[in-house]
């Protein structure tokens, strides 16, 4: 007759994970019954061995269950081996916040991390009453990620910790398994680790191939490509940058950017600025640097283009806008007349053109409202952006709303596949001219326009 093991954990999630581990190793030889404190518990325990998931669980259960006839074991827990590779990839010397809901268990978790070789980072203990940890951008938690401070950029959930080999050995000893059973159980335990190791080796090989492919691609482009991780360490430095900075990528990769690039303004732009592009003189070369963020890996990518390249690209973009009719062709010199009222209007519109405020142009049909709108655009700071003119009198409220603000795929019958970009989005960094907006009621469109443009009644 099989003997019985009773497992008691704190949460349902822990119960499920640890039960799966024990079942995989021991199910052929013993009955396994599991309970969690946050679920319903029996009045008494009927088992040969009672296994607690932690010391605090045993303490909490001492006055609630009668286990005098069972052998009690407090399990030692260790990091699930499938998370070790991810933890090893955290850059050296990083401050890592260890987040758990129990201080003693937090210390045990740190001890477990050291035991499996995660000793290249600086561990910081989480305290419930503390709200800010200076310099911490990475947190590690065994399933308690809801406790992590919201400003921490990178959170690694290592899930429920498994029972370690010492605990499995104590169970084997307590149930008195023979040598044959003993060997089979150890083989099962080791097989999981070996299988994972195979997967890690395979994944590492794939990553090396991918890295070499990416490196070969970025090395043939004319632009300089620089990538910086969340710790401000350089992860990519292509051939163009090697030439520009007279540095070898092998000497700069994995170093903090401020220790490689001496231009403080450039470093601040890449690591801190909200600007997407900026001009810099880099070692005597005039460069426009474009910046983008890869959210999934929290990596910043900076593209270095020569000013000549940037001007050429901008010219091509403007040419494309003009070809599509998204450009203003008239300037103030195209407004011909000597009447004082006209000259006064031109003077006022010139002043308004250099502001960022929405402008209302009133006049009878045929008096040149669009002529003024185009001249204002070409005299403004937005002159390099698109100019879109929309005849509002020719559209219904519904059509006008979908044209101005766009729509998502399948939002209504007849909507085009993939949705449609709105004219406000198309006119980004440029000007949109809402022609004839005042000659017809536009209902709720008025409120939408006020939200989009900041127009006040």
Topology:
Elements: E1 3-9, H1 12-26, E2 30-36, E3 49-52, H2 55-61, E4 71-74, E5 77-78, H3 84-88, E6 95-98, H4 103-115, E7 122-125, E8 138-141, E9 154-157, E10 162-163, H5 165-175, H6 179-220, E11 224-228, E12 234-237, H7 239-245, H8 249-252, H9 264-271, E13 277-282, E14 285-294, E15 299-306, H10 307-323, H11 340-353, H12 369-378, E16 387-391, H13 397-405, H14 423-426, E17 431-435, H15 445-453
Parallel strand pairs: 1-2, 1-3, 3-4, 6-7, 6-8, 8-9, 16-17
Antiparallel strand pairs: 5-10, 11-12, 11-15, 13-14, 14-15
Features:
457 residues, alpha/beta, five-stranded antiparallel sheet
Task: Summarize the structure in short.
The protein has 457 residues and is of the alpha/beta class.
């Amino acid at each position: 007759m099989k003997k019985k093991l009773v497992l008691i954990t704190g949460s349902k999630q822990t119960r499920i994970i640890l039960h799966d581990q024990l079942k995989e190793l021991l199910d052929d030889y013993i009955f396994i019954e599991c309970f969690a404190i946050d679920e319903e518990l029996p009045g008494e325990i009927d088992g040969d061995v009672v296994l607690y998931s932690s010391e605090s669980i045993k303490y909490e259960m001492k006055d609630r269950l009668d286990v005098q006839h069972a052998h009690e074991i407090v399990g030692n827990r260790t990091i699930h081996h499938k998370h070790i590779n991810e933890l090893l990839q955290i850059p050296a010397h990083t401050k890592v916040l260890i987040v758990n809901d129990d201080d003693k268990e937090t210390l045990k978790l740190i001890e477990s991390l050291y035991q499996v070789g995660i000793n290249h980072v600086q561990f910081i203990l989480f305290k419930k009453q503390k709200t800010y940890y200076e310099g911490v951008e990475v947190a590690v938690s065994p399933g308690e990620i809801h406790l992590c401070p919201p400003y921490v950029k990178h959170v690694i959930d290592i899930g429920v910790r498994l029972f370690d080999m010492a605990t499995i050995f104590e169970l084997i000893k307590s149930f008195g398994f023979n040598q044959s059973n003993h060997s089979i159980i150890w083989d099962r335990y080791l097989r999981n680790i070996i299988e994972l190791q195979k997967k890690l080796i395979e994944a590492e090989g794939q990553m090396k191939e991918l890295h070499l492919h990416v490196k070969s691609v970025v090395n043939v482009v004319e632009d300089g490509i620089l990538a910086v991780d969340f710790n401000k360490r350089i992860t990519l430095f292509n051939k163009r940058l090697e030439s520009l900075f007279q540095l070898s990528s092998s000497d700069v990769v994995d170093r903090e950017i401020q220790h490689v690039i001496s231009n403080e303004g450039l470093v601040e732009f890449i690591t801190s600025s909200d600007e997407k592009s900026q001009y810099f003189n880099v070692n005597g070369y005039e460069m426009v640097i474009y910046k983008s963020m890869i959210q999934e890996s929290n990596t910043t990518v900076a593209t270095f283009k020569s000013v000549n390249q940037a001007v050429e690209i901008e010219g091509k973009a403007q040419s494309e806008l003009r070809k599509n009719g998204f450009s203003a062709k008239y300037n103030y010199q195209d407004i011909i007349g000597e009447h004082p009222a006209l000259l006064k209007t031109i003077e006022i519109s010139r002043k308004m053109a250099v502001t960022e405020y929405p402008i209302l142009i009133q006049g009878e049909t045929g008096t040149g409202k669009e002529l003024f709108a185009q001249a204002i655009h070409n005299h403004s700071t937005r002159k390099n952006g698109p100019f879109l003119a929309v005849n509002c009198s020719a559209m219904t409220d519904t059509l006008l709303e979908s044209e101005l603000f766009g729509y998502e795929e399948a939002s209504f019958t007849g909507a085009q596949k993939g949705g449609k970009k709105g004219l406000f989005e198309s006119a980004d960094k440029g000007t949109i001219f809402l022609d004839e907006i005042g000659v017809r009621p536009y209902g709720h469109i008025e409120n939408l326009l006020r939200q989009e443009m900041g127009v006040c009644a």
